[in-house]
Design goal:
227 residues, mainly alpha, Arc Repressor Mutant, subunit A, 2 domains, 11 helices, 2 strands, elongated
């Protein structure tokens, strides 16, 4: 067999493997699972549950099936499942088929996703506290900015909302004063939600608005144009 034929055969083999499909695993889940107290086996069990559902259409694999995949006994798999449920990483949901009337169960790992998101939000806040250089000057301490939002919203912020504010500061590089003024604009408009505030910040960024004075001037012109 020639080299070209060998490469073609190899390519066909790789294509067949890739055609089997897979699952998307967030880097955050892989980066945080040990910090959340999960063992390698715990994490792999959760990933196997994802694989069973998304690739094989099996929403409630048996302990025997999971044990075989993980190289452990069915009893050990049951113990890991019980631990994950007790710790809030995993739940079992009941569902009813509207056509057949048959009731079934399925695993739900949204608890794992939420815990990972909460860990990421806390990590970002702690990193910003310890690694922020003195040369970087901001008008307001970022932690106080979270408090301002919580006061306006009248409640504690969710982990995702905390991540959004952190991303505005760290990734989008919006000034603290600009975020505060966008919050005021949302309150003024009676649209107190993060999507609306994000749209305001994006609009200002497109028009090269970088501070509160420029934002105030831009907003006054915008309102004047609508009259």
């Amino acid at each position: 067999m020639s080299n070209d034929e060998l490469w073609k055969a190899y390519s066909r083999g790789m294509a067949a493997v890739l055609n089997e499909g897979g699952i998307h695993v967030s880097a955050l889940l892989l980066r945080s699972y040990r910090q959340l107290g999960l063992t390698d086996t715990d994490a792999m069990l959760l990933l196997q549950l994802m694989l069973y559902r998304d690739n094989e259409g099996v929403e409630f694999p048996t302990p025997e099936q999971l044990g075989e995949r993980l190289g452990i006994t069915a009893l050990a798999a049951e113990k890991h499942i019980a631990m994950l449920m007790k710790a809030g990483f995993l739940t079992i949901d009941e569902q009813l088929d509207s056509v057949t009337g048959i009731q079934s169960e399925k695993y739900n790992w949204s608890g794992w996703l939420l815990k990972a998101a909460e860990w990421a939000a806390q990590e970002r806040r702690e990193t910003r506290k310890t690694e922020r250089k003195p040369a970087v000057k901001r008008a307001v301490d970022p932690n106080n900015l979270f408090n301002v939002f919580e006061q306006e919203f009248g409640r504690l912020l969710s982990p995702i909302e905390c991540e959004t504010i952190t991303a505005w500061l760290d990734e989008d590089r919006y000034a603290d004063e600009l975020i505060r003024f966008a919050l005021k604009e949302a309150v003024f408009a009676g649209k107190l939600n993060f999507k609306y505030i994000d749209r305001i910040l994006i609009e200002w960024s497109r028009n090269r608005v970088t501070n509160e004075d420029e934002a105030r001037t831009y907003s006054q012109k915008f309102r004047g144009g609508r009259n």
